[in-house]
Each structure stands twice: as C-alpha cells, then as structure tokens.
Amino acid sequence: MEHLGGEIESWMSGRESDAKTLDAVMAGNGRPIAFEVKSVLDEKPSQFAMKSNAKLPSDWKTWPAYRVNVSLEFQSESAGSVKQIAVYKMTFNPTENRWYIRE
C-alpha cells in the first residue's frame, strides 16, 4: 500500500494524484491534512488497469488487486476537522509495472 500512501501524500502537498477523490472535490474539502489506512482486502482485478490504447492481456484476471478503506481528514471552515472514508480499488498491471487506483 506504499504506492497509495505516496499518492495521498502527493494530494496532501498539492501535487497531481491518482488518489484525489471526487467526493472530496465536490464537497469543497480541499486537500487532506492526514490519512489512515483502515483495512486492506483482496479485490478482483480491474480490466481497465492499463493504458487506454493497450490490448488487454489474457492473464489480467490473475493481477494482484486490493480494496483499501482509508480515513481521510480535512480541515474544516469551523477550525475543526472532518473525516471521510474513501474506498480505493487498486490493481497492479505487471506488463506496465504500474498500480492503477480507482475510487
């Protein structure tokens, strides 16, 4: 889960990130100030874990995949903090040697 942690840290520092959640953006929460991984479960791999122009390999169903529940903490306008649970689905594409993250 090192890759996901790095993506969330990129989001926290204001850089582009695959971990930025649509819910947080729509709620106007800005960037998280902290996060905690709550659980990691096995998941079915995503057939979309590849570049858009790539051909899906026949072994894609064997790729490692996880569902990760993460508590994200945001600074609120009222000087407190707000926590939100985000569920990420991660699939590793060994052909590209890359993790793909979906919310």
* Portion in strands: 35-45%
Low-confidence stretches: none
What is the global morphology? elongated
End-to-end gap: 15 Å
Category from helices, strands and their pairing: alpha+beta
Give the integer mean of the pLDDT values.
88
Keywords:
single chain, 103 residues, alpha+beta, 2 helices, 4 strands, 39% strand, elongated
How is this structure best described in words?
Helix content is 17%, strand content 39%. By secondary structure, it is α+β, with helices and mostly antiparallel strands. The chain has one domain (2-102). The longest helix is centred in the first third of the chain and has 11 residues, at 2-12. The protein is elongated and about 50 Å long. The two termini are 15 Å apart.
Summarize the structure.
The chain is 17% helix and 39% strand. It has 103 residues and is α+β, with helices and mostly antiparallel strands.
List the helices and strands and how they pair.
Elements: H1 2-12, H2 22-27, E1 32-42, E2 65-75, E3 81-93, E4 98-102
Antiparallel strand pairs: 1-2, 2-3, 3-4
